[in-house]
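Problem 12. The chain below contains 402 residues. Write out its predicted structure in token notation.
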Amino acid sequence: MKPEKQRGIYSNVDRRTVLKSMLGVAAVSGLPTAFTGLAMPAVSWNSINPRWYGFNLLEYFSTDPDWMKYFPYKNDGNFKEDDFRWMRDWGFNWVRLPMDYRFWTDSNDLMKINEKGVEPIDRAIRLGENYGIHVNISLHRAPGECINDEADEKLTGIHVTKEKTSVYRAPATFQAFVHQWVYFTQRYKSISNNRLSFNLVNEPDEKNAKSVDLGRADYVRVAKAAIAAIHAIDPHRLIITDGYPVATKPIPELFDTGVMQSCHDYVPGQVTAYGNPWVVRWGTGKQPAPTWPLSDAQGKIIYDKQMLEAKFRPWGELAKHGIPIHFGELGCSRHTPADVAHAWYSDTLDMINELHSGWALWTFRGPSGILDTKRPGVQFKDWHGHQLDATLLHVLQSKMRV
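Solution.
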């Protein structure tokens, strides 16, 4: 099959390409920064961070049906054009696609990718171009790594088909992980950084690591191999790494690569995860309904805006090293009362703005989004057959910096 040059989409990535790229890891040095060729913010923004505001879309989130019963998305890869259109009309400009590699990868041969399974991603990128939305493709489940595998099915009630091997321990799985990104790099080589970026793996966290430091070192080794393989093919490709562990802390060992670093914000969990069935340590509705600021039964403040600012202040230090940041996920459970959720979003986005960073909600439609959340206490407005949380939409729009 000939490369589809007119769309900037390339095919036919073989094992030799992967091995050649991996062998070149040690030889690649002085990698260009991730932002070469990317439209930069205005001087008034006073930051190297892009002004990206948007949402996560879950049409390719998980091949495990138990997960999808909690989200109003179908595992068909049919990203909805209306989602892109409405985001554009409301002033948003960024979507992240957290995806499960098993949708397009042969389970019996992790080096074999089914091109038909990748075509929905092609379409999402084109929709992004049509509506001025930057598309970030992310391996939420990568070969040998997925944060969902740490959940206990007996406690959550959610069946997860776990990875059989580890990207950190099995050489063949490591090779398959790099192969995923070599494939995407070849396929999308001619697409500009204004339209497309890569997020290596969602919330890396080596569950069998003896310590956080050793786990981070293992992730750094894997990430650097993938970054070098990508840049060996497309030297200016914009790459994002989540923080470690679980997208919570910056990774200084990756500063020399120049890639953007992403933080996920669900702090404090007593507010953001309230009632979520897969987060049992905060209960499934058994705990008292939270307040914001969060207080205990005696009215003592447990968490507030100032504590948020202190918690995430280290992320603001990355600008001194020339490393851009973005908050690729944040959100508040649909079970959290409306007034509490709206107040949390307002203070949280203020905090992120103080860091001069963009942000994205976990989901556009569903639990942490602005459409069809079913959140108690919201006066929903009809929006083309969907229930719109217009109050939250207003909060989000008021926090975007232009």
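Discussion. Residues 304 and 370 are 23 Å apart (CA to CA). Students who got a different answer should revisit the alignment rule from Section 12.3.
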